[in-house]
Amino acid sequence: MLALCASQLTAILDMNLLAFSSRNYIKHDNAGQFFSSGHTNNWAVLVCTSRFWFNYRHVANTLSVYRSVKRLGIPDSHIVLMLADDMACNHRNPKPATVFSHKNMELNVYGDDVEVDYRGYEVTVENFLRVLTGRLPPSTPRSKRLLSDDRSNILIYLTGHGGNGFLKFQDSEEISNVELADAFEQMWQKRRYNELLFIIDTCQGASMYERFYSPNLMALASSQVGEDSLSHQPDLAIGVHLMDRYTFYLLEFLEDIHPASKTNMNDLFKVCPKSQCVSTPGHRTDLFLRDPGSVLITDFFGSVRKVEITMETINLTDPINSFR
Amino acid sequence: MATTEVERRRGQLAALAIAAVVIIVGVPLWWRTTETYRAWLPVSQINELAKLQLQLSADVEVVFARGTLTPEQQKKVPLTQTQDEEHRVDEDTALRYRYETRYRTATIMEEDALNQPTAAEADLSLHTLSESPCGSLVVYVIPESSSLLRQDVDVYIGQRRTALLRIGSPMRVGRTLEQLLAHMEPRMKQVLQVMSFSNTDITAALSDRVRVSPGNKGSIADSMRAFKSSPGYEITFSLLNPDPKSHRLHWDIEGAVQTYIQPLLTKLAPVANFSIDSQTLYYAVLGVNPRFDSSRSAYTLNADSLAHVINPVEARLGSNAASSNPVLNFLLYVPDAHHSPLYINDRKKQEVPSNAFHSPRWGGIMVYNVNAFYGLDAVFPVDININMAKVMGVFLAQLRLLLGVQSSTPPPGFQVAACGSAGLADWELDRLMWSRSVENVATATTTITSLAQLLDQIGNIVINDNIAQQVSSAVTSLQLAVAELEAGNLGFALQYSKEAILASERAFFDPSLLHLLYFPDDQKFAIYIPLFLPMCVPILLSLLKIVSEARQKRREKQAKKD
Fold first, then answer.
1. What sign for the dihedral angle of Cα A7, A8, A12, A18?
2. Active site residue A161
3. Where, by residue number, does the polypeptide cross the bilayer (chain B) (predicted)?
């Protein structure tokens, strides 16, 4: 009872008496634990580059990663979702407003609250590079911008049809690995990221990260140069392949992660070995400063906020005469 | 015979004419029409800026009160000294700190002011006598016998730009003025580091240019907590009411903002623009279940679970879609009737007096318990008026932290005054202005130099006139900002540095600078060969034929001569 009264009385620490005493000026509770990764916010740029109904699986890939990232805490305001075609409301979809990841139809990755930022024909190489480098026209709304700073960890996921050194957009244009590497370098020059994780699920995906040269980039691909990434399984009711193998097993892996889990990147590298994927997934960590074993999955896929207790307050009971 | 000769001659002339047209007219025309327009950029000036030599100057006035100087020391005063301190941060960046110190004795009115009973009142009356310009300091040296300061305190830092420094009696300190100054030196250095700029703060502000690995975890936390320099910020106050059936909350947010927050923001006007809005969210819950602590008969939230509170709430907070400025969110959460009262525990399971926490570069959340305002027999919903002074006290402190106003612990023996009605002391504003100017200059130079490098490397980006103009104005503003910093005009330096940043960002992020023109060399050949090869082959062959015929003729002539 007494403790309760005392706590209410001392509810406000007086800024008057900031003499160095046993009371700490700024108390960092275990600052080391909280600030080891060096980032304060998370962003995700998820891109599906293929159109047409038979590329259903690419939209399902992107939406599964979107779903995992949202579930682990990244808000929609920090996700830039680019889908080149609308599968959920496609005329050929026998189950409208749904996009399934598995033929048992247990998981509708479209969900109730999907927010697509770039849709249909807006998904072009130019717009993708503009989002990454920040060179958007002034009239672009906030939701279509990547407003990251030097303390942001960014996850970039690309999927579609690709080849040795390029990725096809909308069946009419390509982005080359050199352009991508240059875009990342421009992001680094302007300090638009702290650390960046690049995941690509296409044929010959490893060729896309060969040319990276900026620091703090980690890359994963679903197949090596010369190999094709294969799709997982067709659904006879919907009539198309539902997902690609790599992203299917990635989704399975991510479903086991929750916001407080301590799984690290080395486990992510083991997702979808050759026996399951038929292609050999690859990864690249030489540009990354930290050891992958110390990088948590939630550093990129989730949004665990750093938190500090507010120890000081200002005494405002007498605003006009608060200086004495 | 003659006709074939004429024909052949005509053919030769035709081939030569075509070759002449192609070479003299065609090649330059093709070159001109396929080159990209690149306006002129001041590259040499940009390269000069890449090597940044910053000099920060501060004016310090040291006033000796009666009883601190012996008569012979007093004869040597007034005196002016200049101190320089050099630091080399890396091979491209060097810093120099210059302190111009003027020593003088106190006037009669100042002596009267120093005779006040407490340090705070002395500070106030000294302020009424004279106002120090931005970026300068005045240190009043008071004798040991003075009762203004407590026993264990040697230095008192006031709300404006004055400090009181107590030294020992002249007998102990030394005979000559030099000995006295040498005795005062360490304390003066500490005062200057607290009140104007310190090397750690300035080096941290240069983080865009220099990736410095900070010494300890505390300074990592400091550098990550405050928002980076931006021309504007948006502040959003949100009231979260998860239980409208029990609590009908009233908060006078407009009045509170006007009374408590606006003075601070007005004082910070040279640093940035602020826009404020507020909202009330109903049925917004924290994403974490609090635990019931029977010893205090209250619900508690651990420090560990606080990190997961923010994300579910953030999804429901709106944002002003019109600007790209960073947003500071301040949330006031009133727990529902079944989970009241709710307290936050720190890592040591101790209760937190402010009942609030903040997240670096995001904002702050405060939990406001209202269960004390009504008894068990209240009729729901209960009308509750929130005590805005208490709430704003917490939010103002968090705002100061997030804007980077707060700094490191003052050294032992220092007493720092409360921050005044605006929530910000003048010297704190000066500190912020120093570090913001340096940060802006560092960011702008990095932007401009990397833009110049980028445009140099990629040959086929079009550089429009407006980009060249922005770059030139950025370079000019940067040069002016560096010059003003050197001269010690803090206000102008900050203004020029802000202009430099705006111009450089506008130039770097101009939408026209996107190049999609990556052509590997084999693709370039693949485009030009089908165009030019069919045209060039006949011309070349006929030229060769002309040359070989001319040679043959010359040989025949030689043979005829012989």
1. negative
2. yes
3. 12-31, 525-547
* pLDDT tens string B327-382: 999 999 999 888 888 999 888 888 888 899 999 889 999 999 988 888 878 888 88
Whole-number Å distance between alpha carbons of A9 and A6? 5
Q: Could you give the ipTM of this predicted complex? A: 0.81
Integer Cα distance of B306 and A259 in angstroms: 12
Q: Which residue has the tokens 């960011």?
A: B443
Burial class (CB in 10 A: 0-12, 13-18, 19+), B494: buried
B381 Cβ under 8 Å from any chain A Cβ: no
pLDDT exceeds cutoff 60 at B301: yes
Question: Is A64 a domain residue?
Answer: yes
Alpha helices in chain A (DSSP H): 2-9, 31-34, 56-71, 125-133, 177-189, 245-255, 265-269, 274-277
Assigned domain for A152 exists: yes
Cα–Cα distance between A194 and A199 in angstroms, integer? 17
Cβ-defined contact of A308 to B310 (cutoff 8 Å): no
Give the minimum alpha-carbon distance from B552 to chain A in angstroms, rounded to a whole number.
54
Task: Name the closest residue on chain B to residue A23, using Cα atoms.
Answer: B409
pLDDT at B208: 75
Task: Give the DSSP H or E segment for B105.
Answer: strand B93-105
**Do the chains contact at B360 and A308, CB–CB below 8 Å?**
yes
DSSP class of residue B373 equals G
Nearest CA in chain B to A260: B308
Question: How many domains are contained in chain A?
Answer: 1
B489: left (phi over 0), alpha (psi -120 to 50) or beta: beta
Instruction: Mark yes or no for CB contact A322/B421 under 8 Å.
Output: yes
Of B319, B346, B393, the CB nearest to A29: B346
Query: Is residue A292, in this structure, part of any structural domain at all?
Result: yes
The Cα-based distances of A268 to A227, A281, A296, A301 in angstroms read 20, 11, 10, 11
Interacting residues of A237 by C-beta distance below 8 A, sequence separation 6+: A94, A95, A103
Query: The domain spanning residue A262 has which CATH number?
Result: 3.40.50.1460
CB pairs under 8 A between A and B: 227
Residue B504 DSSP SS3: helix
Residue in the block written with tokens 């805490």: A73
Interface with chain A: mutation pick from B449, B514, B515, highest number of A CBs within 10 Å: B514
**Mean pLDDT, to the nearest integer, of B452-478?**
87
List of chain B residues whose C-beta atoms are within 8 Å of the C-beta of residue A79: none
Answer yes or no: A48 catalytic: no
The model carries a pTM of: 0.83
Taking an 8 Å cut-off on Cβ atoms, the answer to whether A130 and B518 are in contact is: no
Span B417-447, pLDDT tens digits: 877 777 888 888 988 999 899 999 999 999 9
Provide the shortest C-alpha distance from residue A31 to chain B (in Å).
6
Taking 70 as the threshold, does the pLDDT of residue B238 lie above it? yes
d(CA A272, CA A254): 12
Q: Are B164 and B155 in contact (CB under 8 A)?
A: yes
Please say whether the beta carbons of A39 and A194 come within 8 A.
yes
Chain B residues with CB-CB distance to A11 below 8 A: 353-355, 390
Residue A274, min C-alpha distance to chain B (Å): 34
Residue at token pair 């302007």: A190
Instruction: Copy the structure tokens of residue A61.
Output: 């890939």
Judged by CB atoms within 8 Å, which residues 383-402 of B form the interface with A? 389-390, 392-394, 396-398, 400-401
Measured between beta carbons, the chain B residues lying within 8 angstroms of A7 are 351, 353
Domain that holds residue A204: 38-301
Q: Is residue A1 part of a domain?
A: no
